[in-house]
Design brief:
Elements: E1 2-10, H1 16-32, E2 38-43, E3 56-62, H2 65-76, H3 82-90, E4 93-102
Antiparallel strand pairs: 1-3, 1-4, 2-3
Helix pairs in contact: 1-3
């Protein structure tokens, strides 16, 4: 499983519930059309966490990089309904940071006597 991580803050005038609902609609559509496996929307609790990562954390789960590429291709067509859903999220977020992680050890990795 590959995990596409997004951290962000909200633009002034955007409510937390509004943002969360926009992310749910957008990523829910990508999940419904099998472009992603799943996602989570999280918010920093009690102010704990690095400030530079932003208050919100979104994790998008994909089977592999091929599925992530297909999701990117779908979004990059800029056609509806995905474009309108994507724009609603983009209009709400600022200070965005991205990262790509994977489950480890990789399922195809030879285990041998190595310690991880």
């Amino acid at each position: 499983m590959d995990l596409y991580n997004i951290w962000c803050n909200l633009k002034s005038g955007t409510t937390d519930v509004e943002f969360s609902a926009s992310v749910e609609r957008y990523l829910g559509e990508l999940r419904r059309t099998d472009k992603i496996v799943g996602f989570r929307v999280m918010r920093r609790k009690l102010g704990l966490g690095p400030r530079e990562l932003g208050e919100f954390h979104i994790v998008i789960e994909v089977r592999d990089l091929a599925q992530l590429d297909q999701a990117f291709r779908t979004v990059s067509t800029r056609s509806n309904p995905v474009e309108a859903l994507h724009a609603a999220v983009n209009q709400s977020a600022c200070d965005v940071t991205f990262a790509l992680y994977r489950d480890f050890p990789d399922p195809h990795r030879e285990q041998g006597d190595e310690k991880f």
